[in-house]
Each structure stands twice: as C-alpha cells, then as structure tokens.
C-alpha cells in the first residue's frame, strides 16, 4: 500500500522556525568576520603609515648630517691638509639631525620616541623610532581605539667619490665618483662653486 505525505501549513511554519535561528547565527558570524578583516586592514594601514614616517625621519637625519659634511668640507679646503678627511663621511657632529628627524616625523603625524647614531657595514648614520599620533581606530577588536602604531628605521651616509692614496691635499685633486661623475678641487684656487651637489659626494639611503 502506498503512503502519501502531505505538507501542511503547520509543518512549513515549523521548518521556517528552525531555519531562522541558523540564518541569524550565520549572518552574525559573517558580519564579525567582515569587521575583523576591516580591523586588520586598519592595523596594516597604521603600520604602513608608521613605517613611512620612520623612513622619512631617518633619511632626514642622515641628509642633515650630509649637509654638515659638505659645509665642513667647503670651510676646510685650503685650511690645512686634513680637508680630505671630510670626504670619508664620518666627521659630522649630527647636532641638527634629531631636529630634522622630528620635523619630518611631525609632517607625517608622528612623534620621535627613540633616536641615536648608528653604523651599518662601516657606514655611519642614524636610527629613529617613531610612534603615530593617531590610533588604529575603533574596531571589533578591543583596545585598537587607543593603540598607536610604532616603527623604526636606520639611514646611512655613504661616500661616493674616490681618490688616489697618494693624493696631495696641497695640490689640485681630481675625484672620480659613482655614476661616472668627476670634479677637481685645487686648494689654492678653491671656490664654493667647485663643489658638486651633496648627492654627488655622499649617498643617503635606508639600511637593509
């Protein structure tokens, strides 16, 4: 004997009643996952901003020291036989380096919280740590509304010009620099215009 099942309005209503909580539960999970991904994206954006600020601050400090080296070189030519030492890239005091780093950090809405001289592969430079003035922002993850991103970076100064070991600082000297550039300095007839751009004498870049 065949039996036929008939769906009644009551049965359909019962199925809908069982499905609705599951639907609400799944929707809640999907919303939480979406908000969590958004929170991670906020954190990543804050970290990237912090790293950019740290890189800019470190480079600014090293560039300030490079300018000091060029100024020192210009003032020392013809004033003795030690002016060539300025081209080694390590005679700067770095007195204005932190100020330069703080200025660039401020331009990137950040604050310098750590600073100091550093050396990488024999080349001098500066290490900078910053903290963003802004926070990660509100999210489903507790505490992000008061969390500031931090990052650090080191920039170094590297001489770009070579001269012969037998070079006489009291005579005209020709310098060969990276990129095929060259220039000459004659201590007896020196003029500030004889010096090339600071970027020709020294490169400034982030340490690996």
Strand content: 25-35%
Distance between the termini: 83 Å
Report low-confidence residues grouped into runs of 5 or more: none
Return the structural class: alpha+beta
Percentage of residues assigned to helices: 25-40%
Query: Can you summarize the main beta sheet?
Result: 4 strands, antiparallel
Give me the strand/helix succession.
HHEEEEEEHE
Q: What does the average pLDDT come to?
A: 80
For the largest sheet, list the strands in their spatial order.
Answer: 1-2-3-7
Number of strands: 7
Radius of gyration from the CA trace? 31 Å
What would you call the shape?
A: elongated
Number of helices: 3
The count of domains is 1
Write the layout of secondary structure elements.
Elements: H1 9-76, H2 97-107, E1 110-120, E2 123-135, E3 148-159, E4 161-162, E5 173-177, E6 182-185, H3 198-201, E7 202-206
Antiparallel strand pairs: 1-2, 2-3, 3-7, 4-5, 5-6
What does this structure look like?
The chain has 208 residues and is an alpha+beta fold. The chain has helices at 9-76, 97-107, 198-201; strands spanning 110-120, 123-135, 148-159, 161-162, 173-177, 182-185, 202-206. It is built from 3 helices and 7 strands. 25% of the residues are buried. The mean pLDDT is 80.
Task: List descriptors.
208 residues, alpha+beta, four-stranded antiparallel beta sheet, three-stranded antiparallel beta sheet, 3 helices, 7 strands
